[in-house]
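User: My notes are a mess, but here's the protein and guanosine-5'-triphosphate's SMILES. Can you give me a structure?
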Amino acid sequence: MASSGPDQSGRNVSSIPDPLEHEVNEAYKKRGIPGLKEAVERKLNLWKTVPLNIAITGDSGAGKSCYINALRGMTADDKEAAPVGVVQTTAEVKQYPHPEHKNLILWDLPGVGTPEFTRDSYLAKTNFERYDFFLVFTSCRFTENDMWLAQQIRQTGKSFYFIRTKIDSDISNNKQSHPRTHSRVQVLHTVRSDCMNQLQNKGFTNPEVFIISNFDVNEFDFGQLSERLIQDAPDIKREALTLSLTILTENIIRAKESYLRKRIFIVSIASAAAAAVPIPGVEYVVDTAILLKETEFYRKQLRLDNTSVQENAAALNISLSELQKRLNLESQTIPGTARGLLAFFVSLQLSTIAKTVLKVALPFVSWKISSGLSYGVQVFCLNNILDIMVNDALRINAAMNIVFARNTMEVIQRT
Ligand SMILES: Nc1nc2c(ncn2[C@@H]2O[C@H](COP(=O)(O)OP(=O)(O)OP(=O)(O)O)[C@@H](O)[C@H]2O)c(=O)[nH]1
Ligand SMILES: [Mg+2]
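Assistant: No problem, the inputs look usable. Here's the predicted complex:
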């Protein structure tokens, strides 16, 4: 059985899932530390091997390719992007893997009813069975063909979602045509009700419609759509989808956090086993390469890497240094080198906390490594780093939401 015990904050610091304990123990018995490290590495990367296939369909010009690019963090100018055009561009089934997470594949499907993709041939030609989710797009009205497709998907028991794009255009058009009475909230409300009516009239009770702009993934329902996909994903795919999506909302940050916390126990086993570099002044050892890799993984997952933070600053219309100052982003002080990370650990005053926190038994009885202490230290340090990064990601997300809310409020106040 895995041992467990609370740390200072009451968090359980050593609960190792039982099947993993068995797997890792077996690997250790057979191949020693290298076997153990391999087993741990395999476990940590398992999510990358889970295939996620999302079908994107709807009328020509609805914004399917733009959505695919937005979800992959690209614009149509990027080399690997889906081509976007003012004339019909998608005439065949094409797959677009996420650039960082190749297991997540977005399938650009032509809409039903084009000459080569008639209703009769659509399901076979698009390889209908392959997809986990279906996203049906329109920039105006859902067509009879969209409804037909939704019925087919419903019969398979798979999830489908209606997406209404180009809300930014609706808002700006309304603003131009109604300069004195324009209300952004009202436009959103009208578009949403119109979509609901269209679908209800066609027999979809309680349809769910996501209203988005492909040019602003932080506004409207773009984030909620990603949340919904995570929520509806089958259990075995949920972790993979959570870690593969790069769009962040508060709920997605929390979902990522929960998977990242679970990894801490596993990462710490490998690091404690390797026990390579002594921390000056303390009697335990850690493998800084492993810890650095994990820390950088958090940074990437929570979009706190340099490029992402810069993008956030641009979205908020302030400079990078201004963003760091205003939000007091502590994650930016977490070093990105092994040596720096080690110094950072020491700055956490491990020697004082060690005695309290580390009354955690070594998780694996069959180990003969004096690494119980190292294991506990690492669980503590990684939890600490993750706390800092999650807080920063939440702060940036809240700042984005405030700007969005302010845009809306200004409009409400003027009307
Ligand atoms: N304003 C605005 N324009 C958009 C949005 N999404 C797409 N567009 C524009 O709409 C046009 C068509 O977009 P695509 O993404 O190529 O549409 P598609 O559904 O892939 O079209 P096909 O490949 O022909 O089926 C392009 O000019 C895009 O720039 C959006 O959310 N807002
Ligand atoms: Mg297209």
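Residues 60-66, 84-86, 88-90, 165-166, 168-169, 213-215 surround guanosine-5'-triphosphate (ligand 1) (CB under 6 Å).
User: Great, I'll file this with my notes.
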